[in-house]
Amino acid sequence: MPARAEVVVVGAGLAGLSAATRLAAAGCDVHVVEGAGHAGGRLATERVDGFLVDRGFQVLNTGYPRVADLDVDALGMGWFLTGARVWVDGRAHRVVDPRSRPTALPATATAPIGSLREKAALAAFSARAGYLPVERLLAAPERAAAEALHRAGLAGTPLDRFLRPFLAGVLLEDRLETSSRYLDLLWRSFVRGRIGLPARGMQSVGEQLADRLPAGSVHLGCRVTGVAGGAVETELGRITADAVVVATDPTTAADLLPGLSASAPRQVTTHLHVLPSSPWDEPLLVLGRPGGELVNSAVLTDAQPRYSPDGRALVASSTLAPTREADVREEVARAHGVAPSELAHLTSVTVPRAQPAAVPPLELRRPVDLGNGLYVCGDHRDTPSIQGAMASGARTAQAVLRRLRPAGGPTSPWRRPPMSDGGPRVVP
Ligand SMILES: Cc1cc2nc3c(=O)[nH]c(=O)nc-3n(C[C@H](O)[C@H](O)[C@H](O)COP(=O)(O)OP(=O)(O)OC[C@H]3O[C@@H](n4cnc5c(N)ncnc54)[C@H](O)[C@@H]3O)c2cc1C
Fold first, then answer.
1. For 236-267, what is each residue's pLDDT tens digit?
2. Ligand 1 proximal residues by C-beta, below 6 Å
3. Atom of ligand 1 nearest to the CA of 15
4. Quick one: how many helices (H) and strands (E) in the chain?
5. Where do the domains of the chain lie?
6. How far is the CA of 203 from the centre of ligand 1 (A)?
7. Across all residues in the chain, what is the average pLDDT?
8. CA atoms of 392 and 338, how far apart (whole Å)
9. In this structure, which topology does domain 47-62+72-197+266-355 adopt according to CATH?
10. Which residue has the least CA distance to atom 5 on ligand 1?
11. Cα 33 from chain centroid?
12. Is residue 406 very low, low, confident or very high in pLDDT (cuts 50, 70, 90)?
């Protein structure tokens, strides 16, 4: 650990790494200090009996604008179809975006998730979110998501059978009290992108960014205990710096920066099971049924076979309440049309403080420059997502560079593109 650095970033999640890679690319001497033993923050993956297990079910959505900063090809993605299976009257029905699988159009058109008129309303809602300019979406009156969907003609059956469980799995809340503005941006990303899993697990997204930083500049397993403009106190000593970026989770950020308001009230529990083989022939999420505990369940290996060491199927099933495996085993089995005895329980994980809430009034770009060389970034500064974390890191890097490399100066980083897909570019 250096005693001095130009910039110290506290936290190697996507926000901190997005800031650090941009600062390094602009020629800053940047060091990242991370309390955990891995880069990637809440994107964490471990091996359990040979299976890749992410810390809670999450996916990379290529509709996020900041995914442009990643080398998606190098992640070796495996893809889910955009859509979901819904169980109604003892049968599983497919609801699939016909642009991704035109042959699924008849099944989707006849799926029991509402009348033809309601399906047309869903198509109109998707077209609006996907293709209107973002400024127009953000100019619309802000409401709770449930009310916005109601006004779009999507109350009742489409909401209960499809939209509520689908969105609950992403927003980690099922009352749909989330801001309609965030709903619009999120739905836009589903319309414009695909969702999938990297070959080496979600943690590899963060690791890809960390690998772009100069060797020796990411310090893992070193917790920061205090920050001030000008210095960082760590378990291993003090580092002085021209700029300090706090890129921790919201709760730690609020502890380290008194006066900062940030929290992550959303939580999720994910149960992992193994099946001898997948019961399905397509990689598609299965939605929970109204009144059940599950919000969704997915055979991860249908999308990304590399999550399994030997061809057996890995199933991830999530609940908003902190359930026990025994509470959901039958529901998981029903979701996939298998007997409960076929499911071998691999592990379960409850992630408290998984995400900030994005309720109205949504402040999309909360301040990142706290003055005196102190900065803050993270998903609590933008939206509670991979996109929000990366966008906040990019915004923070710009703020730091405005101070350390004033625009137009001889070493202005803006003379070159600020981000590359390869290694960091040093500005002479
Ligand atoms: C189960 C789950 C499912 C999710 N699903 C999705 C999804 O499908 N799509 C999506 O877009 N988003 C999803 N998210 C949200 C997304 O993962 C987060 O919004 C994003 O990763 C947050 O990144 P961050 O950099 O802001 O924070 P973090 O990832 O929390 O990074 C903060 C880093 O700071 C470190 N740190 C904390 N305290 C200290 C300290 N004192 N000293 C040093 N280091 C410290 C932490 O160890 C961590 O590495 C999900 C989150 C969870 C938990």
1. 999 999 999 999 999 999 999 999 999 999 99
2. 10-16, 33-36, 41-43, 56, 58-59, 223-224, 247-249, 252, 268, 351, 354-355, 378-379, 384-389
3. 25
4. 13, 20
5. 4-44+203-264+362-415, 47-62+72-197+266-355
6. 10
7. 94
8. 43
9. Polyamine Oxidase; Chain A, domain 2 (3.90.660)
10. 58
11. 22
12. confident
Collapsing DSSP to helix, strand or coil, 207 comes out as helix
Question: Of all protein residues, whose CA lies closest to atom 8 belonging to ligand 1?
Answer: 58
For the chain, percent of residues with pLDDT exceeding 90: 92
Calculate how far, in angstroms, residue 273's C-alpha sits from the geometric centre of ligand 1: 24
Is the domain 4-44+203-264+362-415 a CATH 3.50.50.60 member? yes
pLDDT tens digits for range 171-193: 999 999 999 999 999 999 999 99
DSSP label at 74?
G
CB atoms within 10 A of CB 422: 8
**Cβ of 99: how many Cβ atoms within 10 Å?**
11
Q: Which amino acid is at 238?
A: R
Interval between CA 349 and ligand 1 midpoint (Å): 15
Q: Which of 61, 31, 57, 46 is nearest to 390 (CA)?
A: 61
